Amino acid sequence: MARTAALTVVHGRADHLATQERSLAAGDRLPDVRVVVAMADPDVPGDDVVHLAGDPRALPVAAARNAAAASALERGAEVLVFLDVDCLVGAATLRAYEQAVVARPDAVWSGPATYLPAEARPYRLEDLPHLDAPHAARPAPAPGEQQREDRWELFWSLGFAVHRDAWETIGGFDEAYAGYGAEDTDFGQRARRAGLELWWDGGARIYHQHHPVSRPPVEHAAAIVRNGALFHERWGWWPMAGWLEEMADLGVVRRDGDGWRLVEAG
Questions:
Q1: Where in this chain does the record put each Galactosyltransferase C-terminal domain (predicted)?
Q2: For residues 235 and 43, what is the distance between their CA atoms, to the nearest angstrom?
Q3: Mean pLDDT, to the nearest integer, of 119-145?
Q4: Average pLDDT estimate for 227-252
Q5: 171 inside domain
Q6: How far is the C-alpha of 115 from the C-alpha of 131, rounded, in Å?
Q7: In terms of domains, do 192 and 239 share one?
Q8: How many CA atoms lie within 13 A of 23 on its CB side?
Q9: DSSP 8-state code for residue 134
Q10: What predicted TM-score, i.e. pTM, was given to this entire model?
Q11: Helix orientation angle between 221-235 and 183-193, rounded to the nearest 10 degrees
Q12: How many Cβ atoms are within 10 Å of 99's Cβ, its own excluded?
């Protein structure tokens, strides 16, 4: 067995975090190391919580994930499993990630993600297999199956796992990104450039707890434009293009040459 860490960053989602903890405790492979990083949230319970100050631009998601990984590596973790705070794990998820990473440590591993319906709340762990309906925008191999993916733009950070050596090769998340969007797409591009592979493991299933969202996420427009511009500067193309087009239709952003800018209020 490889020493495996479950890593989560959180701000203001104590109820979702508590349910995630229950799902981890019910799994057939418990984490050897558990790290929770609270971003500008002193009310997150737990003696071992790592507290991170806020960023004046937006929530420091990239920096918080790096802090979580640093803490886990200091405690001897070999397999790093990152979980969005909204995500629950299936009974076999951590074991599937551990086995996949050990077998192929030169890859970034993801698993199918189901967005749970609001009407199914409160979520019972025993119901998760019956609610399994992976998101259609990503590959969803069956449990016991694996699939290589060449489209690195499909990487997302809801749930993924890497070996400590792969993490160090990539260099973690770029802390120049703050707030909503692009830091995970950037991470995927950096992993691709480093020569790693992207794989999906059907046993590493996660279940995203429902919460209200805006479509498009206009409250994050400033971060999307700022992070998107940084990504474009680095990689030559704009991420989150669908959101930007929809926000342009609403008059929130507008085209600016080959990029985007916020529409000034008033």
A1: 153-198
A2: 38
A3: 95
A4: 94
A5: yes
A6: 9
A7: no
A8: 30
A9: B
A10: 0.96
A11: 20
A12: 19
